[in-house]
Task: inverse folding
């Protein structure tokens, strides 16, 4: 089926969904009508066709879910759970049988639809992902194909696992049954760069998410059984630093990623994955320090930011970073630039200024966490030296100077024109606020166009 035919069919589906009465939501009818959506996830499909498919999925899910204004209170949550169950029943017969085939024309679109469903409605996608046998079928896919199909299959699986690793209910399953495969793909020098980046992104989300889940799900007490040993903490941090180094190198090795819209939407998917992964891992103090001290990396990161186009310089700030209104190439560009903003923001952000009471609460939390990790043995019983030396104001000021010296201002000024993304504008404001904290930086910021950039941000 040609792209033009698929586009026409997708637009027709959208019109039916807009009317809400023209598309019957049953597993049998949807399975026959969903063909254009599946076709959109074939490797030969254009990004614009995939964007239409995402929009169809989003509309379908939106129609199936209750409106917050129509249903309130506890009944709203009940209706949401019913909708999730109904949507899971709708999409399972479309995705699961195709994962069990040996045809890339069936498996590829099923994985693409599954990944898109995670992006649109993680609750429904999680319901399918957690069903018996689904992950096993997904993990069998890379072994079914070789050559170009093998690379495409591995990339699709790694991308799906990256989405699943960002969702709490799915993480234990990914950790138990897919983490070894992801580690192998991320560390194999011979692996495709896109596969390595997607796998590293998944592992980063899995590592950070699992640690957060453990801290939320346990109630540590000093003198009790350790819930997370110091050895495990060190192992996790070493792994995250290694993954950050891998993704950093992928960005350094990328060439001309911002020169054309084609690279932003297709061949530079590995850069998008690497930037997303670093947006997560750069929350770690050691990773922040490593990235800020690597001038070649910072130079390449900032070079991902293209000069603004005429239509962007005059646009109104009407939509956010995830808007369906954006053209696919614009959405890819905005996602990349937002990731760059988050990385820079993580590098230059100061810890919040706390009142004396807040400092005491923070100290108690740190002491409790240390006691849980060490089984009650406190190296700093008064909590006076609990602050990470890499998170002090002096450490952040050093990182700010490094970022400025590496040439961040042209990138910030260029991104200040991207008024179609509220997320980018907010991040830019916070970055500039951190950079002007040190008086010595202010002259460089003014000379670099920081004042005009701020004016554009607040317009």
Result:
């Amino acid at each position: 089926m040609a792209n033009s035919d698929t586009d026409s069919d997708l637009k027709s589906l959208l019109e039916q969904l807009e009317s809400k009465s023209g598309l019957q939501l049953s597993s049998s009818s949807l399975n026959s009508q969903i063909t254009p959506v599946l076709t959109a996830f074939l490797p030969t499909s254009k990004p614009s066709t995939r964007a239409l498919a995402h929009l169809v999925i989003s509309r379908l899910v939106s129609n199936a879910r209750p409106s917050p204004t129509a249903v309130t209170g506890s009944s709203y949550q009940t209706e949401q759970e019913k909708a999730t169950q109904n949507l899971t029943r709708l999409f399972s017969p479309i995705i699961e049988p195709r994962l069990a085939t040996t045809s890339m024309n069936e498996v590829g679109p099923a994985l693409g639809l599954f990944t898109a469903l995670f992006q649109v409605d993680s609750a429904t996608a999680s319901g399918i992902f957690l069903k018996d046998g689904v992950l096993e079928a997904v993990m069998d896919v890379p072994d079914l194909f070789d050559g170009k199909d093998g690379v495409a299959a591995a990339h699709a699986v790694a991308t799906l696992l990256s989405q699943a690793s960002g969702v709490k209910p799915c993480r234990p399953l990914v950790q138990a049954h897919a983490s070894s495969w992801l580690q192998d793909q991320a560390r194999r020098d011979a692996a495709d760069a896109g596969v390595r980046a997607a796998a590293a992104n998944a592992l980063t989300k899995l590592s950070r998410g699992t640690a957060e889940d453990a801290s939320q799900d346990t109630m540590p007490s000093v003198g009790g059984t350790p819930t997370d040993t110091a050895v495990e903490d060190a192992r996790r941090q070493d792994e995250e630093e290694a993954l950050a180094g891998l993704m950093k190198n992928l960005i350094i090795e990328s060439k001309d990623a911002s020169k054309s819209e084609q690279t932003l939407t297709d061949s530079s998917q590995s850069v998008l994955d690497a930037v997303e992964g670093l947006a997560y891992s750069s929350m770690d103090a050691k990773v922040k320090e490593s990235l800020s001290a690597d001038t070649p990396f910072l130079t390449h990161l900032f070079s991902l930011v293209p000069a603004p186009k005429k239509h962007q310089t005059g646009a109104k700030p009407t939509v956010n970073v995830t808007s369906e209104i954006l053209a696919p190439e614009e959405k890819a560009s905005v996602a990349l630039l937002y990731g760059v903003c988050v990385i820079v923001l993580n590098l230059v952000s100061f810890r919040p200024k706390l009142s004396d009471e807040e400092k005491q609460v923070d100290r108690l939390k740190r002491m409790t966490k240390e006691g849980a990790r060490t089984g009650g043995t406190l190296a700093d019983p008064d909590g006076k030296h609990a602050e990470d030396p890499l998170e002090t104001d002096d450490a952040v000021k050093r990182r700010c100077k490094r970022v400025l010296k590496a040439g961040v201002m042209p990138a910030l000024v260029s991104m200040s024109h991207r008024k179609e993304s509220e997320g980018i504008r907010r991040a830019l404001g916070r970055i500039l606020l951190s950079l002007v904290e040190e008086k010595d930086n202010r002259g460089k910021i003014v000379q670099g166009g920081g004042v005009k950039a701020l004016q554009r941000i607040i317009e």
